[in-house]
Amino acid sequence: MKKHLVSSATLPLALKKAFYEYQYLPEALKMLPVDGMELVFLPEWDH
Fold first, then answer.
1. Per-residue model confidence as pLDDT tens digits over 6-47
2. Which residues form the domain of 17?
3. pLDDT tens figures, 26-37
4. Rounded to 5, what percent of the chain is helix, strand, coil?
5. 24: nearest Cα among 15, 33, 32
6. 13, 20, 28, 37: which has the fewest Cβ within 10 Å?
7. pTM for this model (two decimals)
8. Does residue 28 contact residue 12 with C-beta atoms inside 8 Å?
């Protein structure tokens, strides 16, 4: 299995949406050769 790391902020941009519009992540993922995704939100990034 080949793994890819893609920022969730860049995926909506591929559809000309704002980086925070996470509802477009599944649509953007359909454009990539992936089987699934894992969202990781790290609280320490907010500081």
1. 877 788 898 999 988 989 988 988 888 888 787 776 665 555
2. 10-46
3. 898 888 888 878
4. 35, 0, 65
5. 15
6. 20
7. 0.63
8. yes
- 3 is a domain residue: no
Give the per-residue pLDDT at 15: 92
- Is 37 within 8 Å of 25 (Cβ atoms)? yes
Side-chain half-sphere CA neighbours of 43 within 13 A: 0
Residue 33 CA to chain centroid, in angstroms? 13
Query: How many structural domains does the chain have?
Result: 1
Report angle CA 43, 41, 27 to the nearest 5 degrees: 155
